[in-house]
Design a protein that fits this description.
The complex is a heterodimer of chains A (408) and B (394). Chain A is mostly helical. Chain A is built from 16 helices and no strands. In chain B, 64% of the residues lie in helices and 6% in strands. In chain B, a hairpin with a 2-residue loop joins strand 1 and strand 2. The chains are: A mainly alpha (408), B mainly alpha (394). The interface between A and B is large, with 57 and 56 residues.
Chain lengths: 408, 394
């Protein structure tokens, strides 16, 4: 820099790009305390990584994972029904329809953003890296292909398919649950009933989260509107419910559901354990969802209400046609976040004895054949939770940016 | 409807919003209380059927179960009430310690996240992402069963200085009060009074001269100084240190203080997990202070540290306090996961009492009331603090 003043010729502006050494000096060693921090941090990373890698490659008994992979994913889903052939194809059907709808929606609405689409569609291929059998891997890769085909279709006839896609989404979840549950009796030839006690593993975790968020959505919106209401009785009920639920830990509510729910119902009514857990999760999620929606409601400027009144709408119409559509639009990102939190929270049902992903993990460890494999098993299911939550939050963050959701 | 409005067409009452509002309220009232009444009568009928009508008298009965660790004296001859109290104290213990350590670690992580040091920055980001995306319960069980229970047995304990890690828990050197301990407490109390007086004098002086000294720091230093002085003036040190000794035979560490693996696993797990969330809160708070504030402070001649202390920090604190409160509440509520690793907190004791006495409804009501009290107390305190530091707007 000093030469600039002394020399007659103008030098070219200093290059923005720096060498590797320059980068290291700028980002790691620019002051003495930063250099010290770098050394200390590197030391910590080295010690931790070294011991974990030594463990992972020498002491760890990873064979517990492939031996129980199916249990982790679907629990005892179909195999325990006596004399019944494999019913897992019903889950595959659900997954294929889901992949198709996701591909379709991407083609219809998002269009660009190929990198994010790539992440989404590459996800099944990533899962296929797990030690599955060859046929399962082929089916997983097939998921990506199906998504790709429907993405292309969606892009091709974007206009015409918009309505269809929306109705597909709405119809999907009831139909998917119906496929999992099956029609009619347990002995039926086609899609026999699979009792909920056979639902387990990741399947149960995901189902609990989806049912939780979907059913609690209308309740939560009603509670949020009730909390903002000018009617004192409605408002105080809503506040009481929300604060009561938010003030106590989920695990205490789950215990309450398992122990006390049968007491509250008429004699003879005895819902099974999964339904009890679902009721509690819905009650719990509704209170938190209500607070999130309230945030959206408060963000609506007063002018919107006044304009609606000026146009002659009454309180109910104002809420339904003017305020809620705008409020719900702004809270979509928060709701995705809540879904992720709920997905993680469903792991608590393991404490009350359900066999979700964590419950299965605990039962695998209890198996005398795999005694002492706590680290392997818990690392594996942590990885599963991590990848799913991270992929979901990454996709939703990118989608928000692409669609401008949450901005007004 | 009214006389002087006769010319205007009156709205029929079923479309008049005032009547509709009243009607909606009555409807809500009837619906909610109707539902509650049905549930209540169902419950009473079921309780009659199993022969346990609602009553709190069972709390006076003998608990006849053991609790692994307790802050107060407890034996199996004590009552259920006392057993529950043990649970409450255990929850308070782990929550308070957890909040303190999680705040310290969280601030370190939040500041690291803003560091210009690339590796430190990445490490903090990775840490936060890791803990935000795995369930606390999975982490806690992994941490307890995969780490704390895999420590070597007592005779081969891992030694870090005088701290020993083993299957039996973590043993620390610990102070035992001697005869002069009571006298030392008096010295500390007097020291505190002197320190407050010093602080007030400095504050007054600062107001008079316009140059505010760091009165809190000086007061604190005074107190610490008196504390150190008192320690050595007394004829005998108020605490005598005992170091943990590994056993020659048998399984018990003698001397020092041993914390059970359940307690240490729960505490450290909660701290590690909550620190990630507090780190994000701290980062967001610091970033919320606009850069112009620092530049303006520097332009006024404040040094970098002064700008941080007098300009950035007070403003960041305002943004940080509300989300920090909810993190503290979360930590307290999350401590209920202790049941998965066998630390006798409220929910754990609650479960045992229900198993022994069958009093599910009463115990659930008591437990919910306990947690609600915690929540209300914490948020009341934090709201009071928040109000104190809020911007006074004109």
């Amino acid at each position: 820099m000093t030469t600039l003043h002394s020399s007659k010729k103008f030098l070219p502006p200093p290059s923005e790009r720096s060498t590797a050494l320059g980068w290291v000096i700028k980002n790691l060693l620019n002051t003495w305390y930063n250099a010290l921090l770098t050394i200390v941090t590197l030391g910590i990373i080295f010690v931790v990584l070294r011991s974990s890698l030594i463990w992972a490659f020498s002491a760890a008994r990873w064979e517990v994972i492939p031996a129980n992979l199916r249990l982790f994913l679907v629990g005892q889903y179909p195999s325990q029904i006596p004399g019944e052939n494999d019913q897992v194809w019903r889950l595959w059907l659900d997954l294929y329809i889901l992949a198709g709808i996701i591909g379709l929606s991407w083609g219809v609405w998002v269009r660009r953003r190929e990198t994010v689409a790539g992440v989404l569609l590459g996800f099944p291929i990533l899962i296929a890296l797990l030690p599955f059998s060859l046929s399962v891997r082929a089916l997983l890769v097939g998921l990506s292909v199906a998504g790709l085909i429907f993405w292309w279709l969606g892009k091709r006839w974007a206009r015409r398919l918009q309505r269809v896609t929306i109705s597909l989404w709405i119809a999907y979840f009831p139909v998917a649950v119906l496929f999992i549950r099956g029609f009619g009796a347990e002995e039926a030839a086609f899609m026999p009933n699979v009792p909920t006690r056979f639902w387990g593993g990741l399947l149960l975790s995901v189902l609990l989260a989806i049912v939780g968020i979907a059913v609690s959505f209308p309740i939560g919106v009603a509670l949020a509107v009730g909390r903002q209401s000018s009617l004192p009785i409605v408002r105080s009920f809503s506040v009481l419910y929300i604060e009561l639920i938010r003030g106590v830990p989920l695990i205490s509510l789950l215990f309450m559901g398992q122990i006390m729910l049968p007491l509250f119902l008429p004699q003879g009514a005895n819902p099974d354990r999964i339904i009890r857990a679902m009721v509690v999760i819905v009650m719990f999620a509704a209170a938190y969802l209500a607070e999130n929606v309230r945030g959206g409601l408060q963000a609506i400027p007063k002018g919107q209400y006044e304009a609606a009144y000026a146009l002659g709408l009454n309180g109910f119409q104002t809420m339904v046609f003017i305020v809620l559509p705008q409020a719900l639009r702004t809270v979509i990102p928060v709701l995705v976040g809540q879904f992720i939190t709920l997905f993680k929270d469903t792991s608590l049902v393991a404490i009350v004895g359900l066999l979700d992903l964590l419950g299965i993990a605990r039962s695998v460890i209890a198996n005398p054949k795999f005694i002492g494999t706590q680290r392997e098993v818990f690392l594996f299911i942590s990885l599963f939770y991590f990848v799913l939550s991270y992929a979901l939050s990454y996709t939703s963050r990118r989608l928000e940016a692409a669609l401008g959701v949450g901005e007004r | 409807m009214s006389v002087h409005n006769a010319e205007q067409p009156t709205i029929p009452f079923w479309r008049d919003e005032r009547y509709l509002n009243i009607f909606a309220q009555i409807l809500a009232f009837v619906l909610v209380f109707g539902a509650l009444y049905i549930l209540w009568s169902n419950m009473n009928r079921s309780l009659e059927a199993i022969g346990l009508p609602l009553s709190l008298k069972f709390l006076k009965l003998t608990a006849s179960f053991d609790i692994g660790e307790s802050l107060i004296k407890y034996t199996r001859e004590d009552t259920y009430l006392r057993a529950y109290l043990v649970g409450i104290l255990n929850t308070i213990q782990v929550s308070v310690l957890g909040i303190i350590f999680a705040t310290i670690l969280g601030i370190i992580i939040g500041v690291s996240r803003l560091s210009t040091n690339w590796i430190l920055n990445r490490l903090a980001t990775g840490y936060i992402e890791l803990f935000r995306n795995i369930p606390l319960l999975v982490f806690l069980i992994f941490w307890y069963q995969g780490i704390f229970l895999k420590f070597p047995d007592v005779r081969n304990a891992i030694a870090i200085g005088h701290i020993y890690l083993s299957k039996r828990g973590v043993a620390f050197p610990w102070g035992i009060p001697t005869e002069t301990f009571r006298a030392y407490l008096y010295i500390l109390a007097v020291g505190l009074v002197i320190a407050i007086i010093v602080g007030i004098i400095l504050y007054r002086q600062g107001q008079k001269t316009g140059r505010m000294p760091m009165f809190t720091l000086w007061a604190l230093l005074t107190w610490i100084g008196i504390g150190i002085l008192g320690w050595f003036i007394l004829p005998q040190a108020p605490l005598s240190w005992t170091l943990p000794q590994l056993p020659e035979k048998g399984f018990n560490i003698t001397g020092g203080k041993v914390f059970s693996p359940e307690f240490m696993g729960l505490l450290s797990g909660l701290v590690l997990y909550t620190a990630a969330f507090i780190g994000e809160v701290v980062r967001a708070g610091i970033q919320a202070v606009s850069k112009g504030q620092v530049e303006a402070a520097r332009a006024l001649g404040l040094t970098g540290f002064e700008a941080l202390r007098l300009v950035v920090f007070p403003q960041a604190l305002r943004v940080i306090i509300p989300p920090l409160t909810s993190q503290y509440l979360n930590l307290t509520k999350n401590s209920s996961l202790a049941i998965a690793i066998g630390y006798p907190d409220i929910v754990h004791v609650y479960g045992t009492i229900i198993n022994q006495s069958g009093r599910a409804v009463e115990m659930t009501a008591i437990m919910m009331a306990t947690y609600l009290t915690f929540s209300l107390l914490t948020s009341a305190f934090m709201n009071w603090y928040n109000k104190r530091i809020q911007l006074v707007e004109r």
